Every structure is written in C-alpha cells, then in structure tokens.
C-alpha cells in the first residue's frame, strides 16, 4: 500500500490501531512463519505500511524482542539506533529504527515505529491496550 505519511502521521495511525480505532493499514505478522517475499508475494522494491506485533524474548528485562522468522527463516537486523519521533508541539511521541532482512538476492528495509514508553505504559495501565505493536514499512 503506497502512502506518503509523515512520521507523526504514522505514529498517530499506530496509536489509533492499538486502541481499536479502524485505520487503513493492515496487520501482518512480520515475525511469524513466513519470509517477507512470502508475505507480500514479491521481491520487488515496493513500499508497504503494515502493523505487526512485537514478540518479547523470554529472558532479560522484557525490553528485548525477537525479530526472527519462526523456523529459522532469517531475522530482521537493526542497522541504526532508535531516533525520536516528535509531534507538532516538539514532544516525543515515539521512536523509529531501521531494520534489514536479507533474502536470496533481495534486501528488505523496514522502518519500525514504536510508541514512546510513557504513552505505551499509560495505555496499558488504563486497559486500552495489552500488547505491544509497531508500524513497519
């Protein structure tokens, strides 16, 4: 799905999605059983906006996530540090980080957008969300 969205618009779509408001971005399990070429049925350089659910690793402090494909199909590797995403008031509303997945002769690049911890925790404590989702493209 080709859309020209700003970082702030992507974060607002993510916020709507996690709180149950309908949005035009679909849910896809990027960290499930299928490689990106199987999910999107292509290896051409096309831009997609999707939501996916993060999967926590069993060890550690709960801040680490498993971005591997189930069954050993590969893993999304971080290629930069998280960068803050600001709203129009210059308040931090989330972060974005770039990931890479190599598959045969194709490299997939994903920019992962996450809500900031403060917003995430407030939504969890208020019972509006229970799981952690991200917007990937």
Automatic annotation (TrEMBL):
Main localisation: nucleus
Keywords: DNA-binding, Nucleus, Signal, Transcription, Transcription regulation
Subcellular location: Nucleus
Pfam families associated with the record: NAM (PF02365)
Any coiled-coil regions, as ranges: none
Signal peptide: 1-20
Residue ranges constituting the NAC domain according to the UniProt record: 1-137
Protein name: Uncharacterized protein LOC107009958
Native organism: Solanum pennellii
């Amino acid at each position: 799905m080709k859309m020209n969205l700003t970082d702030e618009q992507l974060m607002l779509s993510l916020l709507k999605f996690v709180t149950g408001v309908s949005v035009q971005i679909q849910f896809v399990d990027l960290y499930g059983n299928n490689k990106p070429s199987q999910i999107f049925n292509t290896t051409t350089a096309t831009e997609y906006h999707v939501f996916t659910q993060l999967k926590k690793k069993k060890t550690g402090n709960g801040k680490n996530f498993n971005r591997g494909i189930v069954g050993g199909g590969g893993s999304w590797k971080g290629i930069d540090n998280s960068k803050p995403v600001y709203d129009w008031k210059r308040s931090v509303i989330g972060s974005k980080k770039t990931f890479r997945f190599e598959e045969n002769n194709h490299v997939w690049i994903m920019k992962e957008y996450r809500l900031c911890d403060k917003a995430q925790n407030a939504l969890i404590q208020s019972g509006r969300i229970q799981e952690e989702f991200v917007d990937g493209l």
